[in-house]
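Re: the 123-residue chain
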Amino acid sequence: EFTKLGQILRSPNPNWNEAAKLVDAGLDQRMPAPAVDALLKMALFATQMLTSPNYSGPSRELLVSRYYINECAFALKGLAKAIDERDTATALGLWEFGKDSWNSYFAIVNRSISPKVGDKLEM
């Protein structure tokens, strides 16, 4: 969904309505867009993958992954505002920022995924 949003924003004549659906926070009894819904799931997954069974507090990797989740949330909120205002330059800048934050999160979490567990997350 985030890649599709980038394609829409880079097109010569962006479909603003379609872009708005991809960053919809889901207020007023609607389900949030997958990118927005993923934020909570990202935090839960990182907590499971990066917390030691001998918990003595959150690890550095967990704290950094949460930082990148917050950066993704910031980018999505800014994207929603820029899309609402039809500001292509700001929306593209925030999309790039969000893409970098998603990829940084994946890089941290991928370190803890062993081949026995499954495939690493795609960046």
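The chain has a mean pLDDT of 87.
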